[in-house]
Amino acid sequence: MVDTSQNGFALRIRQLLPDGWFPAAPAEGEEERAPVLNALLQGFGSVFAWVWGLLGWTNQQARLLTMSGAFLDMFAADFFGTSLPRKQGESDDEYRKRIQEALFPSLGTRPDVENTIIYEVGRAGRFIEPRNAADCKGVGSAAAPAIGGGYGYGASGLRYGSRMVPFQLFAQLPAGDTDPPSTQTLTRIAAVMPAGTIAWTQDVESLDG
Q1: Please, are residues 184 and 172 in contact by the beta-carbon 8 Å criterion?
Q2: 183-192 and 110-121 are packed helices; what angle lies between their axes, rounded to 10 degrees?
Q3: What is the pLDDT of residue 54?
Q4: Over the stretch 17-68, which tens digit does the pLDDT of each residue have?
Q5: 24 Cβ partners below 8 Å, 6+ apart?
Q6: Rounded to 5 degrees, what angle do the CA atoms 203, 182, 81 make?
Q7: Which residue has the higher pLDDT, 112 or 132?
Q8: Model pLDDT for residues 140-164, shown as the tens digit of each residue
Q9: Which of 7, 137, 196, 207 has the greatest number of C-beta atoms within 10 Å?
Q10: For the purposes of burial, counting CB atoms within 10 Å of the CB of 20, is it exposed (0-12), middle (13-18) or buried (19 or more)?
Q11: Mean pLDDT value across residues 66-77
Q12: Burial, 62: exposed, middle or buried (Cβ in 10 Å; 0-12, 13-18, 19+)?
């Protein structure tokens, strides 16, 4: 393997000098017989080693998988403008993963909406599709909630289902308040929803109850 260190470049330059002009480079353990020449060549070697390292680093910044630092931020800005900034304290690997997901997004599924809310709020939300029995459960009663699979009138977690409202989703976002969801959150949810569907969203203090 080629030695691209400072000393490696200095030795390569020394080998190009005419024979007999200067003493040969010392073998391992031998004393340097041309210290002034060696000092001069080490200076050249330092510059060449720095340039070589810079070329390697520059090559890494030309590929998303290997770029780092500000180059990742510039890559995201080139493709997404201001819509995908780096989060406070976010590492290069974490940011790279989000960029890759944004370049090749998964769209139109419930997990996509769930992941968007986790990204926006930092926690998983609650999702209720009126035509999804797993979300709404069966209808029991407070006296015998097991009839409804553990849910029922007066029982925690009951949601009313309906076959009359297809392509709709109710989402509760555990934002810690009851303010309306931000425009940014609504826009990002809409961006991953299938065409012709509706997501009714609500900020809640918690998902208990």
Answers
A1: no
A2: 160
A3: 92
A4: 888 888 888 887 788 888 899 999 999 999 999 999 999 999 999 999 999 9
A5: none
A6: 140
A7: 112
A8: 555 665 565 555 455 566 666 777 8
A9: 137
A10: exposed
A11: 93
A12: exposed
Residue 34, CA atoms < 13 Å, CB-side half-sphere: 16
CB atoms within 10 A of CB 116: 20
Strands 198-204 and 168-174: parallel
Give the largest Cα separation in the chain, rounded: 105
List C-alpha distances in Å: 18 to 21, 22, 37: 6, 8, 13
Q: Residue 94 is encoded by which pair of tokens?
A: 């974490």
4's CB contacts (< 8 A; 6+ apart) are 49, 52, 53
Would the CA dihedral through 112, 117, 118, 120 be positive or negative? positive
Residues contacting residue 39 through CB under 8 Å, at least 6 positions apart: none
Tokens of 21: 């002009």
| The pLDDT value given to residue 184 | 86
